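Hi, here's the filled form for the chain we discussed.

Project: internal
Contact: R.S.
Residues: 444
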Amino acid sequence: MVPFAVRSLISLPCRVVIDNAVCATATLVKVDSAREHGILLEAVQVLTDLNLCIKKAYIASDGRWFMDVFHVTDQNGNKLRDESILSCIQRSLATRNAASPTSLCAPDETALELTGTDRPGLLSEVFAVLAELRCSVVNATVWTHRGRIASVIHVKDEESGSPIEDAHKISCIEDRLRSVLKGDSGDIRSAKTAVAMDVTHTERRLHQLMFADRDYERIPAEPSTSPSTTSSVTVQNCLDRGYSVVGVQCKDRPKLLFDIVCTLTDMQYVVFHATIYTHYGEAFQEFYIRHADGSPVNSEAEKRRVIQCLRAAIERRATEGVKLELRTSDRRGLLSEVTRTFRENGLLVTRAEVSTVDGQAVNTFYVSTAAGNPVDPKTIESVRSRVGVAALRVKEDAPSSYQNSNDGRTTDAQTGLGGGAVLLSLGSLVWRNLYNLGLIRSYS
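And the returned structure, exactly as it came back:
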């Protein structure tokens, strides 16, 4: 068997090399491919769907070719040694298959999409309607941001275990859910439900739903000062080269790069060059972008919109609150009952991930008070006693490489992003990235 120290696979138009020998602290994943819109997002999506940490990355486009190097580790900051993970990375990237099994709707499921105004108890009402209409929830992902909620819910017909295809039942589901979303305010225009016809990565679709809902324009009731949601985003033009330079500095966290690249891609920007670093839990990212038609950002209004959208993309997944994990045998009405208990104890679900594995419910909820304040531990214990102490547990995120990452070479001053300055001149960036990509011997 060929060792994974250096294993490469050439598959037109994509070449993938996974190298565990050149770097002492991370596994290098190198990708060369024909440049196409969205190719960077596909590569990042493969790595993040495997719950890998991207510690550094260098991206460069040269003519029709796209070249990038990712320095990746597992959640504990270790190099990748699992043969199945390495094979999955190589197979997925080489064949341009960025869809993980858990991120797409299975053929025997129906995907429901919801957006509306968030409020206490809303999720409980949504799950109660689905239970009443005999819809079995297979998995669901819920995000909230600035008073808005977006969700993708995969369901089956409870009796047949098949996807819901009856037009009358689908219409009934949509009408009932739309009624729940509009609530007492009767704001039918901002309450939207739909059955997804296209197969789209769930988390990318959530970004698209919130972008279409224009959550980035909404002013939060109380601006957050939490390190997890504060960010510095700048946009400057390098007009002599025809690029716009986007700089991002914020707290590092899982899937941050995916969220930013996803937003730029769906806004129809193309990333030509980029450098990504992490340092003591901080992320520094710089992207040289153009519109799909080749033009840079061309107005102050467009700059403000890019900044707003990227800040929103960073915030959507950076939800704070008590993390509760529910593990128990799945049964009809379980989700409705649990979320109703949250509501009756004054808790607001700010983010949720719901899944069913071999008849077991494996659900994660982030909860806060309706005002967004920390929850009293006594309230949490009251909820646990009602749901089941053994089934519902408080989960503390273990310290990961996101909190303590440092390659020993990058400082705030070196990145230059802290003050909103451009990291490097374009020529310097390109030459350094070509060096890091292994295409030249020196850039000094």
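Let me know if anything looks off before we file it.
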